[in-house]
Amino acid sequence: MTNRRDFLKRSAALAAVAGTASVSGMLAGCSGTSQTVTADNKAGTPEQERKRPNIVFFLADQHRRQALGLWRNPQYASYLNGVSDPVHTPVIDQFAQQGLVLSQCCSSTPVCSPHRGMLFSGMFPHSNGVPWNCRVDRDWGLIRDTESLARVLGRNGYSCGYIGKWHLDKPEPNDPANPGKYVAESSPSWTGPIEHSMDSYTPPEDRQGFDFWYAYGTDDDHANPHYYDNDGKRHEPGIWATVHETDVAIDYLKNTRNQRHADNPFCLFVSTHPPHPDYADLEDTDPEMYHAHYSPDKVANVDDLLNRPNRHNDQLPMKMVYSSNEQLMKGKPGKGLSTEVVRYYYSSISGVDRQFGRLLKTLDELGMSENTIVVYTSDHGEMMGSHGLMSKSTAYEEALGIPMIVRYPEAIKPGINDVLMGSMDFMPTLLGLAGLNSEIPTAVDGQDLTPHLLGTAAKESRPTSIPYLLHTEQKGLRTDRYTFVINREGEGVLFDNRNDPYQMHNLFDPGKEVVKALGKELGQWLRKGDDLWFQMRINKHLIDYV
Fold first, then answer.
1. CB–CB of 134/198 below 8 Å?
2. pLDDT in tens, 491-507
3. What is the secondary structure of 428-469 as a DSSP string?
4. Which of 234, 258, 268, 301 lies 20 to 30 Å (CA to CA) from residue 416?
5. pLDDT above 50 for 28
């Protein structure tokens, strides 16, 4: 696993060169599901700490902000750039009525691993060890000694559980059942070169303070997921991933096998892989939701599901790192054209929605809802054919924009808030909501937005921008109005999201005052993070680093 010194050395070198199955049976005999008291999770918390709120954080993968039914509600519609996707999400829509919708929450790096690294560390990607997706042939992973969210919570009396996709480790040949082998080598579905594998087993020392563990690195087979428990035992439940993960989460909430300290507050992460690809077949999704809302019998013309004018608009006039031209997706396993896969993508979102509903119902039944912070969000969006692209890894709003809804009945009034929130703000904000703002590590680069969520913030404290950080290739900003991005070659993009909600007109001109002002603000962000661009003064004719 990466340590901080080795990662920083590599960074310098880079700069130089440029609900159905019973979970009890599935976990039977797993001693690791019992609570282990460590230095990061102390027992015997005082009465003051027992009253701290629980946290349930539901993290979907590749759920675009536009794919929520709530945007069809006049209460929210004017806060969305464009119109709602025609999706069915009744649970999340009702949840929004009970919580606070953050309409301008964005993934600062719209790729799985970097967003997750920022979420747990509150730090810039090049500082926390995860500048891009973790893979066998990349020496990246969340630095072991990071002052992570779970570590801070654990030191303050929280039990911390993690269920589902992790994707924050460099895969190592440490398969518990096959020592010296990579996890992918044990998977019958893996057919690519091993150096491209992203799946991993996370040993206890790399779990960043989580004391209950039921997770995996990453794998796209939603119908046949696998997980490793506290002791490294592999489980293959044989049912759709989100259903099983919700089963395990409900079991954790009920604490049926003492997975957590009963008298302590807890933080539970449920990280589900859908609606991320694979999304090309009925087994990839929730079939009931598919047949109920999206099958050809229900929606004859697939174009009605792709209700936006930018589907065939030209791509950005700059290098598109890792963004997928839609035509190249045709015939790829687990993928396809937007017209071929959108029905499965939306039905996966609806399937995730109803599993999220099971969690909320359990909290109600256990009498936990009032004193529990519940978050629904995603790590990044999905282009789904817009601008001729699929997937993420681009500055378009449909890749950057993510759902973000927070419910905390004891403190947060329901409503909608358009304060800017980026990936690095999650960790300090969760600590702030838990009353632990004084415990936010000094290394954190994000902002505690708790006053904005509570409605007590001074107007001048409102963030004016959040950074966009696409590894070493692109840097930019998302402000209340503009999306501004520059690539290494000095090509630029400026979208006026207020007047051009589908981002079809690039207004970039180095001579414009708004470009100069945004270049100065971008320089401040890159200086703050000691970014490689700042170190090398890349594009200094466009970015004011002073």
1. yes
2. 999 999 999 999 999 99
3. HHHHHHTT-GGGS-TT--S---HHHHHT---GGGS-SEEEEE
4. 268
5. no
Q: What are phi and psi of 194, to 5 degrees?
A: -60, -30
> What does the pLDDT look like over 256-294, one tens digit per residue?
999 999 999 999 999 999 999 999 999 999 999 999 999
Residues 467, 60, 21, CA angle at the centre, nearest 5°? 165
Torsion 239-243-248-254 (CA) sign: negative
CA nearest neighbour of 140 among 285, 3, 284: 3
Query: Going by C-beta distance under 8 Å and a sequence separation of 6 or more, which residues neighbour residue 194?
Result: 136, 182, 184, 185
Query: What H or E segment, with its residue span, contains residue 128?
Result: helix 125-128
Contacts of 131 (CB under 8 A, 6+ apart): 11, 114, 125, 140, 471, 472
CA nearest to 303, candidates 278, 333, 338: 338
Q: Which of 290, 273, 289, 164 is nearest to 221 (CA)?
A: 273
In order of 222, 278, 526, the CA distances from 329 in angstroms are 19, 12, 34
Note if the bond before 175 is cis, omega within 30 degrees.
no
Q: What is the CA 283 to chain-centroid distance, rounded?
A: 23
398 burial class (0-12, 13-18, 19+ CB within 10 angstroms)?
buried
What is the SS3 assignment for 484? strand
- Tokens coding 302: 């697939």
What whole-number distance in Å separates Cα of residue 261 and Cα of residue 266? 8
Amino acid 21 reads: A
CA atoms within 13 A on the CB side of 18: 5
DSSP state of 71: G
Angle at 232 (CA atoms; ends 230, 233), nearest 5 degrees: 105
pTM to 2 decimals?
A: 0.92
| Local structure of 521: helix, strand or coil | helix
Residue with tokens 């921008």: 465
